[in-house]
Each structure stands twice: as C-alpha cells, then as structure tokens.
Write a structure and sequence with these properties.
By secondary structure, the chain is of the alpha+beta class. The protein has five helices and 17 strands. Helix content is 18%, strand content 28%.
Length: 322
Amino acid sequence: MLFGETNLKIATYNVENLFDLKKSGHEYVEYIPNTKSNWNSKTYKIKLKNIAKVIKDINADIIALQEIESIQALKDLRYTLKQSGLYYKYFKIANKKNTTIKVAILSKIPFVYTKELAVTSSYRYRNILEAKFTINNQDLYLFVNHWKSKAGPESRRIVSARVLRKRIKELGEDKNIILLGDFNSDYEEYKIFKRKRKHNDTNGRTGINDVLHTKYQTSKASDVKYNKNYLYNLWYDTDKSKRYSYIFRGKKEAMDNIIISQPLLRKNSISYKHDSITSFRRDYLFKGKSIYRWKTSWKKPRKHKGKGYSDHLAVTAEFVVE
C-alpha cells in the first residue's frame, strides 16, 4: 500500500544467463558447473555481484528479469541484493516448465497473485509470468516476457503475442496493464523485418506491432489520442537516439520494451509519468561503443572470464500513483 502521490519505478532487465551451480541437465554447455568452462563458485559470485550492482543502482519498485535459470539463482540474486542494501520482499519465477532459462520478478510491493501463461506445451517457448498488484485500491497487471530469439522467424514470436492478446481481452482493455521484457522485437519491427527474409514468414505481420496493436500510436505520450483497442509502446516517449537496450554489430536496437494499456496514459490513480522511459545507461556498463556483456572466451571450450554484466541494458519507466 502506498499513500499520497508518489512515483512507482518499474524496470525490465535481461541479465544474460544467470545459472546456478546445480547440475540439472538443462544447462548450456558452458554453464555446466565446475568443469573446464570455469563456471564455478568464484565466477558465479562475481556474476551475482555485478548484476546486483546494476539492479541496486536502478532501485526499481518492481523489476522484471529474463534469463534466470532457476528459483535458486533468483534467491541467490535476491540475497546478494539484500547484502548490498536493497531488499525485495516478494519474488517469483516462471518455473512450471523446464526451459533452460526463465522469466522472473522482484518486487517491494506484495502480489495479489502470480500465474504463468503457457505459450505452448513445447519447451522451445518460455512461459509468460503474470503478476497482479493492488496499489491504492487500483489493480495493476504486469506481464513478464521473453519471446523467441531472432535466430528463428517472426511466426515464433507471434505465438507469444497471441497468448498475450487473448489474456488482455479476458481482463479487459480498460485495465491497468503493463507488458515488459525481452520481446526480441524492435518497437518498429514491422518496418525492420521486411528486409530480412529469414524473419518475414508472416506476410508482413509482427507480434509486437500487429497482434498487440502498438504501431498505431507513435507520438509522444502527451499527444496520444485514447483508443482502447491499442497498446502504447513507451519507446515513442523519448528521443529516437535513446531508443535502445541492445547493440548488435555496432547497431543500436530496442529488443526490450515496456508497453502499456490506454488507461495508464490518462491522468488517473495510476498513470505513466511522461518522458520517464529510458534505458539504464552508466559508464561502467559500456566498453568502448559496446555494452559490457558477461565475458567468455571464443575458443572452445568457452571459459568464463569473471568480467562484465549483461549483453542487454535494463529499461525503466516511472508511474505516478495518487
């Protein structure tokens, strides 16, 4: 429960392969613990400490996470954060399916409930994590996503988008809804992917833009005209040069998104704070013009160097609670 007018900071962060030290059989080869890959207690603690530093510096009230292997990894991260002075009392991971990596959430605010949305029964697709909060008697729904990578075509990401769209219709478009996470989709994916034959197997349709209806409102948040059928991608509410969370071969991309329903655009009990969307950029998160990702050697077997953070930047946005 929050009292009076205050800001609520919400963030999303792909932490790049936070694996624990328990061998489960689902790990990537270089994350099998205590082998020549050098994934061991020492490198694990460095990874935890580095990711915790980023999360502490963000200091969000609610942060969605991607690429968490297990509940143990999430608990270890939470404990590392607590040691550094940031305590998240509430936490959840989508672990009903034994996918290699999963989505999770850390929160200072209690859940009303959490549940998993099964995208398909296949282990190729990660479940979506739904969390409901009640803040000052207002319901707020968050959906944590990690869609299929661009190693595959757009049809795979549309599968996840349809599950989200169906759930939003069940809740009602008039609800306070935030979709966030690593969508592996640019905010204008429908423009970009047409040039890439391996992605466009859907006759020009994309999950993020067409299924979720985010391509129809492209102005600043203050200028958006209400339409209950649309969702608004917050990237449009900042300068174009700042719309990125990932750098691939020197090109800035916005793979991580925060998308909101129409009620959050209006002055209400909970509303988006204009101009607050940003990727979390600090000098220590960059090496030259590249993001300072977690470092492994290129030679096989790949070895962990015990340096770096993640290949993604976190994305944050603030909301006004009255």
